[in-house]
Amino acid sequence: MILVVDTHSGIPVYRQLVDQIRFGVASGLLTAGEEIPSTRALSASLGVNPMTISKAFSLLEEDGVLERRPGRPHVVRARPDRATRLEQLEQALRPVATKVRQLDLETDAAITVFRRLLENRKKR
Amino acid sequence: MTLLRPFFLLIARASVFWIGALTLLWLSVVVVGLAQPEARPVAALLDPGLIALVGYPAAAGWLFGGVIQEFQHTSFAYQLPRVRPRLAFGFVMAGLVVAALTVGLVSSVSSLGLPLMFALSCGAYCAAGVLLDPLSRWVTGLNALVLLVLTARSQDVAGFAGDHPWPAALISCGVGTWGLRRLFARSTFRRKPGRPTKPLPGRFALERSQDYERQKQAQRRAQGTAWRAGYLGPDSWPWVRAAIHETYGGLGRMGLVKAINGAWGLLLLVLLSAWIDKGEFNYVEAVGRSLYDALFRSPHVAPFGQEGGPYGMVLIVIAAAGLAMALLRPVALSGAVFHPLSRLQRARVDYRGGLVDAAILTVGVGLTFFVIGHGVGWLIGFEPRFDFMPYYFRVLLVTLILMPLGHWGRLHLGEATRRRTGNTLVGLVFGFVGFVFIVAVCTSAVAAIITSPLVELIVLTMAWAASQRLYWTGLTGYYQRADLA
Amino acid sequence: MAYAFEIHGLTKRFDTVTALDGIDLRVGRPSIVGLLGRNGSGKTTLIQHLMGLQLPNEGTVTTLARPSHALRHDELIHIGYVPQEIRLLDWMTVEQHLRYVSCFYPAWDTGREQKLLAALELDSTKTVGTLSAGNLQKLAVILAVCHHPDLLVLDEPVSDFDPIVRGRLLEFLLELVREDEATILVSSHVLRDVERIVDWVVCLDKGRVVTDASLDELKERYSEWRIVSTDGALPARFSEPYVLAQEVSGRQARLVVRQSAADVAAFRAAHAAEITVHPLNLEEMFPLLVREDPS
Fold first, then answer.
1. Contact present, A49 and A35 (Cβ < 8 Å)
2. Which of B237, C8, C48, C99 suits a disulfide with C53, CB 3.0-4.6 Å?
3. pLDDT over 90 for what percent of chain C?
4. C186: helix, strand or coil
5. Do C113 and C91 contact (CB within 8 A), yes or no?
6. Average pLDDT, stretch C248-272?
7. What is the pLDDT of residues C90-122, one digit of tens each?
8. C206's torsion region: left (phi>0), alpha (psi -120 to 50) or beta?
9. In this structure, what is the dihedral angle of CA atoms C225, C230, C236, C240, given to the nearest 10 degrees?
10. Nearest-CA neighbor of B98 among B126, B68, B66, B56?
11. Of B127, B213, B114, which Cα lies nearest the Cα of B175?
């Protein structure tokens, strides 16, 4: 999986990594049992402080996304259940909801637009 | 008044005053010395009247011209309104006053007419404005040559001026006009010096052109000697070796040659002195004799102590060399590199570097007097005289005893330069004069009080040990308490 | 050894000026610490105290478990230092200078030296006196890292580098942390560079420590709120204590807030407003860092 970090955005780098890996696992880009590059390798390839990478990994461990194996790279645990995936979707849609309210549109109209987008995608 | 103000504001500085005062003092000593022919056997070709007549205005012109040069090549000077006429007016006014004062002073000694004397003074003043010309090395060199000839053959020049007053006045005015034009021309103000001869020493720094920086870089090829060593370790002696490398390594293998090359001024003096009283000798003999005289006894300068003995110049040279080594180029680790040394180790390296300095001075003095001095004497067939040697040895020992003063001064000089407090140049001048004076007093005192050579040797050695002990205590204290950056 | 350096109550006065005023600081290892502050805030003075070059008027400074003024050769060979004002020995070539300084340290790594010369594109046959400011800085950095230091102190190291060399240098510093487990203290004004590599930020202002926190924490501590009112009315000035800076214009407002103390729900309810939260990067939050009190 390709990880991308922007060190100059105000979002902490560890947070960017956690989000990307979590999304990768949820979306199936990373499959269960797959090895994640080591702290050292990631630090070198992304050009960020190794401490930051370890921090991201330990957070992902706590959340049960990754599994630590002493002396070897982390591996991905099982794909998260449907409830967790829905939670991620909700998080992604939250700014959209704000936009809808600012544009002063009623809920039904917004849902229609959203449905059309989802179905268009399927047709192609 | 507004016309005069810019010039006087420029020269109203402590350093200008001190340089001027010292130059005045030095010139006066020379002129007064020359003006007493019965005390000096030779100097037949020197005319103190003419030297004073040309010398005082020239010194003033050099000083004021230097101040103007320093200012005129800054990036902002050219844009100032009417800056050239204003400065020129002040410069000329000051020159007229100086010339008038000089003529008043000299008129009783010289046989020349007053207007002619005034013309000569003014000419010397104006020409000396570009005595050290930052824009051209040739002008500087030519000026120095003219000045030397004027001094060395002043009798002839005075004679010519007395016989042909009009041509002499015309030449003087022409040279003066040339100097004025060169100092105040529009193009001079526009240009930045490509090869800056500093018009004045010390803090009178010139802004330099890009061109100069490029030239300097091209000149700076690596020339240092190679350094081969393994890990230096925690001991201090290897670091003293490193300090020697840092201090003298930059001179490279040809370092000694270059050092002599830098002393061309002294060489010129020897040649000049040979030329002045050549007598019936050929040139080789005359040069050799001058060199020998310079080292052992000079007919020009009063002997120090008893009649026919060694003279004070030797003392001044040895003492000044000792102080210069300690103060300006001591064997010490440069502040430009970060050395992984504790404060105690730094003190130790500094202390031992001082010992190396003392050794170098001793060897240098020995080489100069025994090898060069007696070598030359033997070459031109003089009978070798060793009776001055105890005196030289005493001066050397006293200098060695007092050398830690110089090392100590350097630590604080460095600090003063870092913090940019005080006038370093004036401090240096007074330091040197003071040091030579102390060496002279101590040497005479030792010679007067102690008569037995053995006792003298023991006392001086003990004094040396005591001074080293004191220096070491002071040094460790300094490194315990001082901020090093 | 828990801390690379520890400072307690460090105060330094020059004549009448107080350059450092009661500094307390601890830095564990390994870590990359950014020392930030405006001109004259005391960064260089602090660094010179760490190196034992200056002595405190009050307080103690401990570097690699020794009082910094009493650092011995044995500790100093584990420290690398790039001073702000680099001079070096003009008359040597780069190669000669490297050979010379390599004798100071028992563990000089020629391989790393060659690698860095190539990476930073420094010609080792040149004379030090002819080097440009940027190249002189490169040499100073190489001289400070080839002995595998445990503590590397860099006083404004990247100011004269072009972006490509700067990138390579920063990458190398990260490598230093990975390979040697070194602690690095880097003072800089170039906040974009610092942001890329540091994990801890110390800010000085007028000789005091005003910020001492991890970069991640800082990024989570502050944020910018862009606000659009839903009922058309916003106050002329927001008086919430966590609002640090504000710009109100009609129905819209831009606030810089202390996120950790803010309550989004309460704010939304009180002002009938939609809030979009944007993060702040180091450059944007720098004015907040140097103005704020540690309390």
1. no
2. C48
3. 44
4. strand
5. no
6. 85
7. 888 899 999 999 999 999 999 999 999 999 999
8. left
9. -50
10. B56
11. B127
Interface probe for C, chosen from A7, A48, A59, A104 (most Cβ of C below 10 Å), is A7
Residue B304 confidence (pLDDT): 43
Q: Cα–Cα distance between A58 and B465 in angstroms, integer?
A: 68
Residues of B in contact with C89 (CB under 8 A): 246, 250, 334, 336-337
**Helix axes B453-481 and B424-449, enclosed angle (nearest 10):** 150
Q: Which fold has domain A13-76?
A: Arc Repressor Mutant, subunit A (1.10.10)
Does B76 contact chain C (CB < 8 Å)?
no
Nearest-10 crossing angle of helices C94-102, C110-119: 150
Looking at the DSSP assignment, which residues form a beta bridge with residue B34? none
Q: Tell me whether residue A103 is exposed, middle or buried, using C-beta atoms within 10 angstroms of its C-beta: 0 to 12, 13 to 18, 19 or more.
A: exposed
All chains having 3 or more CB pairs closer than 8 angstroms to chain C: A, B
Burial class (CB in 10 A: 0-12, 13-18, 19+), B419: exposed
Taking the mean position of all CA atoms in its chain, how far away is CA C130? 29
Of C167, C197, C284, the CB nearest to A49: C197
Contact A102 C283 (CB under 8 A): no
Partner residue opposite C220 with nearest CB, options A8, A12, A48 = A12
Residue B326 contacts residue B354 (beta carbons within 8 Å): yes
Domain C3-206 belongs in CATH node 3.90.550.10 = no
CA distance A66 to A35: 9
Statement: residue B445 has pLDDT above 70: yes
Q: Do C32 and A49 touch (CB under 8 A)?
A: yes
Q: Is residue B214 scored above 70 in pLDDT?
A: no
Q: How far apart are CA C258 and CA C223, in angstroms?
A: 7
CA distance C240 to C244: 9
Tell me the three state secondary structure of residue A72. Answer: strand
Q: Which long-range contacts (CB under 8 A, 24 or more apart) does C257-261 make?
A: C257/C222, C257/C223, C257/C224, C257/C225, C258/C221, C258/C222, C259/C220, C259/C221, C259/C222, C259/C223, C260/C220, C260/C221
Element (H, E) at B148: helix B137-152
**Cα–Cα distance for residue pair B27/B54, rounded to 1 Å:** 11
Domain ranges (residues) in chain B: 5-190, 237-262+296-481
For residue B429, how far is the Cα from the chain centroid? 10
Instruction: Please state, for a pLDDT cut of 70, what percent of chain B lies above it.
Output: 76
**Model confidence over B395-441: pLDDT tens digits?**
999 999 999 999 998 888 766 655 554 566 667 778 888 999 999 89
Low-confidence ranges of chain A (pLDDT < 70): 121-124
Among the partner-chain residues C69, C73, C87, the one whose CB lies closest to the CB of B336 is C87
Token pair for residue B452?
Answer: 């037995």
From the CB of residue C173, how many other CB atoms can be counted at a distance below 10 Å?
A: 25
pLDDT exceeds cutoff 90 at B315: no
For residue C232, pLDDT beyond 50 = yes
Token reading at B472: 């070491």
Q: Which tokens hold the place of B265?
A: 């001024």
List, for residues C126-136, the tens digit of each pLDDT value: 888 888 888 99
What's at B348, amino acid-wise? R
Cα nearest neighbour of C171 on chain A:
A47
* Rounded Cα distance, B322 and B316, in Å: 10
For the record, the structure tokens of C226 come out as: 């862009």
Q: DSSP alpha helices (H): ranges in B235-342?
A: 237-248, 255-262, 264-276, 283-295, 312-327
Whole-angstrom distance, CA of residue B40 vs CA of residue C212: 79
Q: Considering CB atoms only, which of C51, C53, C73 is closest to B234?
A: C73
Give me the residue spans of the domains in chain A: 13-76, 82-123
